[in-house]
Design brief:
It is globular and about 60 Å long. By secondary structure, the chain is an alpha/beta fold. Strands 16-14-13-19-20-21 form a six-stranded mixed beta sheet, with helices on both faces. It has helices at residues 39-54, 84-94, 109-118, 135-145, 162-172, 192-209, 213-218, 226-239, 299-304, 308-315, 319-331, 340-361, 394-397, 402-406, 435-441, 446-456; strands spanning 2-8, 12-19, 24-32, 61-66, 73-78, 98-104, 122-125, 152-155, 176-178, 224-225, 240-241, 244-245, 250-255, 260-265, 275-278, 285-290, 364-370, 373-379, 388-392, 426-429, 458-459. The chain folds into three domains: 2-69 and 205-246 and 433-459, Nucleotidyltransferase, domain 5, CATH 3.30.420.40; 73-203, Rossmann fold (3-Layer(aba) Sandwich); 250-429, no CATH class. Helix 5 links the parallel strand 8 (152-155) and strand 9. The two termini are 31 Å apart. The protein contains 16 helices and 21 strands. Helix content is 38%, strand content 23%.
C-alpha cells in the first residue's frame, strides 16, 4: 500500500510519499499554496517536484490536512478568564483551531466590533457551570447575533441555558450547534465534545470556504486542520500504540512565518515538594498557538516584545542592522539570510520566539506564605522534567544551529526559574516535517506511522 499525504499550508503545500512495504518515507516536496486561484494547482506543482525526486509515485490512498487561508480562525467566549474562558480556549486549541482572541464576562460594544473585524470562521460560546450562571452566556448569544458576519457558532456552556440559546439563535436566523459544557462542574473540564463539534464544523463548512471540496472528493479521510494532525502525531510518538511503546513525555515547537505552535505531551503534575496547584487541570496533550510570534508575517510584533538594545548586545549586531532586517523580512516574507550577520539575527529572533511561546505554554511558579511557612503555587503544567524537545518549522530545521534556537525553550537562568520549562532536555528535529503526515497516517495505519516517526525524528 502506497500513501500520499498532503498538507495544504498557508504558504506551502507539502506532499509526503510513504511506502508501507519498506516502512519508509520515500520522498517529500513542497510548492506554494494556490488558495487564491485553485488549490489543485499548488498540489500539482508539488507532485511534479516529488516526481523529479523519486520518479513516478502511484499512491493507493490520499490523506489530507489544511491550514490554508489562515486555517480555522476562532474566537472563544467564557464567563471567568481563569475558568470557562480558559476551558473554551483549551477545547478550540486542541481541535486545531487558531484562537485569535478569548473573551470573558459579557462582551462590550467595542468587543463586538473587534469580533466583526477579526471575521472568524467559528465562535465557541461558553460560560457557567451546569446549573450556575446563565445570564452571561445568554447576553453574549444576543450580542453575537448582532454581529453581521457569517461565522458558525458552537455553544458549550451551562446546560440550563440550552433552551433559551436555541430560541435566541432561531429567532435571529443564526445557525448554532449546542453541545456539552466545557466545564460542567467547578474546576472540571470536559473539552472532548466541543473538540468533536469543532472538527465536524471544519469539515462541513470550512472545506468549501477554503476551496478544498474538490480535494475532499479524492481523499480517503476527512480533511482535518493541520495542527490537529500534528497534535495526533505528537501524541502517537509520546504514547506509542498497543504494545509498541512511544518515547514518553515530550514537547514540540513549530516555529512558522505567522505563528509559533507549542505542543506538550505530559501530565504536568508538580515535580517538587510543597507545591499547591492552582487553576484548571491541564490536559496530557496540550497545544497553544501564539499568533503574534512568527518569523515573517508576525515578525514586527515579535520584535516589539524584545528590548532591542539588550538583544543587539546579546547577539553582537548593531541595533540599526537588526531593525533593517526586520523591516525587510516583514515587507518581503520570502527573504532569506545571505551572510553570517543576517543568519545571526535570524537565529536570535527565532530563539526568542521559541522562548516566549514556551513561557506562555508552560506553567509558572509563584511564592505563597501560609501559617506553616513558605510554599509555591503552580498554575499550568510543570514541564521541568520533560526529556525531549522536538523542533519543527523551516526557521529551526533549516538553521545551521537548530539546538541554539531550541535552547530558548529551556530553563537556563534564575530569571526564567519561575517558568516550569524543561531543565535538561535533549533536542530532536523533524527534518522532513512529517508530524502532520504521520498524524494523518495514524488514522489508518498507526503502527506504521509510529515506526516511521521513531526512525525520522532524530536527536541533534
Amino acid at each position: 500500500m502506497n500513501y500520499l499525504t498532503v498538507d495544504f499550508g498557508s504558504t506551502y503545500t507539502k506532499v509526503t510519499a510513504i511506502d508501507s512495504v519498506s516502512c519508509k518515507v520515500v520522498g517529500t516536496a513542497a510548492a506554494f499554496t494556490t488558495i487564491e486561484t485553485d488549490v489543485m494547482e499548488g498540489l500539482r506543482n508539488a507532485l511534479q517536484k516529488l516526481e523529479t525526486e523519486i520518479r513516478e509515485f502511484k499512491y493507493d490512498k490520499l490523506l489530507c490536512c489544511s491550514s490554508a487561508a489562515g486555517g480555522l480562525k476562532m474566537v472563544a467566549l467564557g464567563l471567568v478568564p481563569e475558568l470557562t474562558a480558559k476551558a473554551a480556549k483549551m477545547a478550540a486549541s486542541s481541535a486545531g483551531a487558531k484562537v485569535v482572541k478569548t473573551y470573558a464576562f459579557e462582551i462590550s460594544q467595542a468587543e463586538q466590533q473587534e469580533i466583526y473585524d477579526i471575521n472568524p470562521d467559528l465562535v465557541l460560546l461558553c460560560g457557567g457551570t451546569d446549573g450556575g450562571n446563565k445570564e452571561v452566556i445568554l447576553a453574549n448569544a444576543k450580542r453575537l447575533c448582532d454581529i453581521k458576519r457569517n461565522f458558525a457558532i458552537i455553544a458549550a456552556g451551562n446546560k440550563s441555558a440550552s433552551y433559551e440559546l436555541e430560541e435566541i439563535f432561531k429567532s435571529s436566523g443564526r445557525e448554532c450547534v449546542i453541545t456539552e459544557n466545557v466545564m460542567p462542574q467547578f474546576n472540571k473540564i470536559n473539552i472532548l465534545p466541543a473538540k468533536q463539534k469543532i472538527k465536524e464544523l471544519f469539515i462541513s463548512r470550512i472545506i468549501d470556504a477554503k476551496g478544498l471540496s474538490k480535494v475532499q472528493k479524492m481523499c480517503e479521510n476527512q480533511i482535518v486542520p493541520t495542527p490537529l494532525a500534528v497534535l495526533t502525531g505528537c501524541e502517537l510518538l509520546s504514547k506509542g500504540h498497543g504494545v509498541d511503546p512511544g518515547i514518553g513525555d515530550l514537547m514540540a515547537v513549530d516555529l512558522g512565518g505567522a505563528t509559533t505552535d507549542v505542543y506538550s505531551m505530559a501530565d504536568g503534575a508538580p515535580t517538587i515538594e510543597n507545591v499547591l496547584v492552582k487553576g484548571l487541570p491541564e490536559p496530557y496533550s496540550k497545544r497553544s498557538v501564539e499568533g503574534d510570534l512568527g518569523m515573517r508575517y508576525s515578525l514586527t510584533s515579535l520584535a516589539d516584545e524584545l528590548n532591542m538594545e539588550v538583544f543587539a548586545q546579546e547577539i553582537g549586531v548593531q541595533q540599526e542592522k537588526i531593525e533593517a532586517w526586520i523591516e525587510r523580512c516583514s515587507a518581503h516574507p520570502a527573504t532569506l539570510p545571505t551572510c553570517e550577520e543576517e543568519a545571526k539575527i535570524e537565529q536570535g529572533l527565532a530563539r526568542n520566539a521559541v522562548r516566549m511561546a514556551v513561557e506562555r505554554h508552560c506553567g509558572y511558579f509563584e511564592q505563597a506564605y501560609t501559617p506553616l511557612g513558605q510554599i509555591f503555587t503552580l498554575t499550568g503544567k510543570d514541564l521541568t522534567q520533560v526529556p525531549y524537545i522536538v523542533g519543527i518549522g523551516g526557521s529551526i530545521i533549516n538553521s545551521d544551529n537548530p539546538e541554539n534556537i531550541l535552547r530558548g525553550a529551556e530553563s537556563t537562568t534564575a530569571a526564567t526559574a519561575m517558568y516550569a520549562k524543561p531543565k535538561n532536555p535533549k533536542y530532536m528535529l523533524d527534518k522532513k516535517y512529517i508530524f502532520a503526515s504521520m498524524g494523518l497516517l495514524s488514522t489508518v495505519e498507526p503502527k506504521l506511522a509510529l515506526k516511521i516517526l521513531k526512525e525520522e525524528i532524530k536527536l541533534i
